[in-house]
Design brief:
The chain has 198 residues and is an alpha+beta fold. The chain has one domain (3-195). It has helices at 3-11, 15-31, 47-54, 78-85, 88-95, 104-119, 129-132, 137-145, 163-185, 190-195, and strands at residues 37-43, 59-67, 70-77, 153-154, 158-159. The strands form 2 sheets. The chain has a 3-stranded antiparallel β-sheet. A two-stranded antiparallel ribbon has the order 4-5. The relative contact order is 0.15. It holds the Pfam family DUF3793.
């Protein structure tokens, strides 16, 4: 996909079309069902358009923070996310950051409170968000323990363990992105692309 195609997607059309283009570009691996969730930073005034773009999909959204005219939105599919949060290793890790309940509503409310506390400059960024975004637990731990330094590689996340597996995942993410963009440019909607993953 050419840079010109990307610029055209983001610069033309209605606000709803611009939001759809951002979702395609930033969340394609999630839309395609490769990832459990994704995150999107959009203009606060575009949340209504985002809801419209996601109508008739199984995708849920949760605003984690809104500040300086921007909204950080967490996108997820309920069943996949609930199953992800059932993993014992993830629960054990998150307990170290004050998570006590692991129901969808409770765990997202706690994440939201931590992201908001960061936005209000009361705490450092809650890097455990990597777990919510389906990054490997070992890499999230490595990032936190190394303060973001000394990684083996940087792609969709910083890699600290199992470099070859991470590179293969990055390749699949890039392929999903290219496929989603190609489909979108051929006239398919976010709904069409997301339905393929169901």
């Amino acid at each position: 996909m050419s840079p010109k195609s990307i610029c055209t997607m983001l610069a033309t059309g209605s606000e709803s079309q611009k939001v759809a283009a951002k979702v395609i570009l930033q969340c394609a691996p999630f839309l395609k069902g490769i990832k459990v969730s994704s995150i999107l930073n959009i203009e606060a005034g575009s949340c209504r358009e985002l809801k419209e773009v996601l109508t008739n999909t199984d995708i849920k959204m949760k605003c984690l923070a809104s500040r300086k005219g921007k909204c950080l939105v967490f996108l997820y599919r309920q069943e996949s996310f609930r199953n992800h949060m059932k993993r014992a290793d993830i629960r054990k890790f998150l307990k170290g950051f004050g998570y006590r309940e692991f129901g969808e509503r409770e765990v997202l409310a706690h994440l939201q409170s931590r992201v908001e506390a960061f936005s209000d400059e009361n705490i450092g960024f809650p890097h455990e968000i990597g777990i919510f975004l389906d990054y490997p637990l070992a890499d999230v731990k490595g990032y936190i323990e190394n303060l973001g330094q000394n990684s083996l590689y940087a792609g969709y996340w910083k890699v600290y363990h199992d470099l070859e597996k991470a590179k293969a995942t990055f390749t699949s993410y890039q392929e999903a992105r290219e496929e989603a963009v190609r489909e979108y440019l051929l006239g398919r909607t976010v709904v069409d692309i997301a339905r393929q993953a169901q």
